[in-house]
Fold this sequence. Notes:
Number of domains: 1
Radius of gyration: 17 Å
Mean pLDDT: 95
Subcellular location: Cell membrane
GO cellular component, one term: plasma membrane
Bound molecules: adenosine-5'-triphosphate
Oligomer: single chain
Structural class: mainly alpha
CATH architecture: Orthogonal Bundle
InterPro entries: DAGK, DAGK_sf, UDPK
Cofactor: Mg(2+)
Family: Belongs to the bacterial diacylglycerol kinase family.
Distance between the termini: 54 Å
Amino acid sequence: MKRNRVGFNYAIRGIFTALQTEYNMKIHFVVMFVTLFAGLYFQLSVFEWLFVLIAIGFVLAFELMNTAIELVTNQLFPGQHEDAKRIKDISAASVLIAAVFAAIVGTIIFAPKVINLIS
Length: 119
Ligand SMILES: Nc1ncnc2c1ncn2[C@@H]1O[C@H](COP(=O)(O)OP(=O)(O)OP(=O)(O)O)[C@@H](O)[C@H]1O
């Protein structure tokens, strides 16, 4: 039980470390809070919340994993290396895919509500 609690603390520390060191992580957090407030404002249905939360979770989790992969890659390849380039590009692509699909989910859910609000 104690072990689990300590492990949880390490994981939370990992989120803060990524927030401090990764500019993209800060952007993801800002977008997450804006989306959550928008969700509360527009009173999303349970179904809509599920999609929004899954999309946010995927983006944050992939960004954290991408950060870890970058750190490992920097240790494995201190200099310029074609494999380091491939690894980082592919890892970054995983975040991009998650972010693009999250943006699509956000657009499908929020666009009609925003249009309805301003028209
Ligand atoms: N050791 C390396 N050898 C060759 N190319 C590299 C190497 N390190 C990075 N690159 C190239 O530069 C790009 C950016 O690398 P970098 O480590 O700055 O990642 P980043 O995505 O900008 O990280 P961050 O999210 O921390 O800003 C990589 O996607 C890759 O194409």
